[in-house]
C-alpha cells in the first residue's frame, strides 16, 4: 500500500509593537483548524480584526471561502489586501487562515509588510526540505483587459523583481507601492526568486488581481510534488 505524502502545513504567530498576526497555511489545501483565541484578539472591534472566540472565523466575510478542498479565511483590516491574498490562496490551491491587528492608525505599511513576511515564513516552513518538487513555476493570467506573468524559482536564493505600472496611488485602503514591497518581503522570507510583470491593463484593480492570480498558478506549479523524484534535491549543487 502506497504511503500518502505528508501534509505541508505551517502555523505562525508573529507579534511586534506594530502588528499581531496569526496565520495557518496548507500548501496542499484541505481543512485547517481555526486560529486559536489569544489576548491579542480579545476585543470586539472588527474594523481592526475579528475578535473574541475563534468561532468568529466560521462567519463568511469579504475574503473567506470554505469548501471541501480549501479553507480560506482572511482579515487584515485592509480590504483590498484581503482580496489579493484570497485570490492568491484560491488559485494556488492553498488553505489559508490569517488574522492581523496592525497599526492602521498610522498607515497600511506595517500591516501589509508584516503579513507578507509571516506568509513567506509559513510558506518556507510548510515546504520543508526542498526535495522532490518541480521547483520552477510560471503562469500567465488575464483579467479582462489586464494580463500578467509570474515566474517562481524555489531556489533558496531570495530575489524579487516586479513591474506593475499602477496608475493611481491607492486601491481602496492599500497603497499601490505596498504590493511591490509586500511581494518582495514575501520572496525574502519564502526563500524564492520571483518575477512578476503586468504586461498590459487599463484598470489598476485588474492589473493587481491578474498579477496575484498569475503568481498563484506559478506557485502551485513550483510546489508540485514530482513522482519518482522523492527526496531528490532539484539542483546541480546537490
List the helices and strands and how they pair.
Blueprint: E1 9-15, E2 19-26, E3 64-66, E4 71-75, H1 79-92, E5 95-102, H2 109-127, E6 136-143, E7 146-153, E8 159-163, E9 170-171, E10 174-175, H3 177-190, E11 193-200, H4 204-223
What does this structure look like?
The structure is a single chain. It contains four helices and eleven strands. A hairpin with a 2-residue loop joins strand 9 and strand 10. The chain is of the alpha+beta class and 238 residues long. 28% of the residues lie in helices and 27% in strands.
The spatial strand order of the largest sheet comes to 1-2-5-4-3
Work out the number of β strands. 11
Overall mean confidence score, pLDDT: 92
- Tell me, briefly, the overall form: globular
Order of helices and strands: EEEEHEHEEEEEHEH
Structural class: alpha+beta
Hey, roughly how much beta strand do the residues contain? 25-35%
Major β-sheet profile: 5 strands, mixed
